[in-house]
Automatic annotation (TrEMBL):
This is ATP-binding cassette domain-containing protein. Residues 1-218 form the ABC transporter domain. SMART domains: AAA. SUPFAM superfamilies: P-loop containing nucleoside triphosphate hydrolases. PANTHER family: ABC TRANSPORTER ATP-BINDING PROTEIN ALBC-RELATED. One of its GO terms (molecular function) is ATP hydrolysis activity. Keywords: ATP-binding, Nucleotide-binding, Transport. Pfam families: ABC_tran (PF00005). It comes from Actinomadura rayongensis. The keyword ATP-binding applies.
Amino acid sequence: MRLDDVGFRYHRRGPWILRDVTLELAPGRVVEVTGANGAGKSTFLRLAAGLRRPRRGRVTGRPGRIGYAPERFPAAQPFTVRAYLTHMAALHGRRGDVVRTWSERLGFAHLLDVRLSELSKGSAQKVGLAQALLHEPDLLILDEPFAGLDARTRDELPALIAERAAEGATVVVSDHQRVLGPIRDRDRLLVADRTISVLGPPEAGEVPRDCATIRSSGAGEVPRDWATIRSSSVGPPGAGEDRGRFARLEVTVEVAEAKELEEGLRAAGHRVRRLP
């Protein structure tokens, strides 16, 4: 799949969101898309998926079987999870048993008879992932797929992504939470300055330019489900500290969210320091 001199803007006289984009998305590869908020990552993913048409240039070689999971799954629909996914499976010529397979694999089989509108954000995210995966797409596009997921699913999703790529699919993922780390052999794209550039291979311990690392210690509650945490570690208490209440925390978050997290930790009684 190839993009040649692709440009996009929402209106004929509006500002360019992306321009002069020329790159190739190879089969059997995982492609990580990075960039600051508002840079155009989601726009690029929609262009790749065929949900938007470029205003300039062209996209060629797009596979016919495409799976797309948006950043926010549209849960305001009058269906149960089972009815929705069964319908999506039928649209792709798949039998209904794939619904049970993916609901068990992503950990929401107990929610199959719940209405979509009653799901939590994390559960709705799982349904969005299932509808993108259940027909074994040759082009899989995931926009912030890790947001809101429980720890078990978040930890298992990289293996599912790698498995799809191993079967020959092109997998394009926007990952604010930096969960793709276990997939060392991945391609990386940076969306910035209204275009897209190819980055080198990831380095161990690398922190993205739009992220900050915060270290804290204290007896207050640790915000384990903070929406934009990319990576975190909780260490043991030091000498003389209450092992039942004290925690040391180191997290990497987007710069835009760092101040709010720091304030929340301080309000919970933590000592906070942003690392250089």
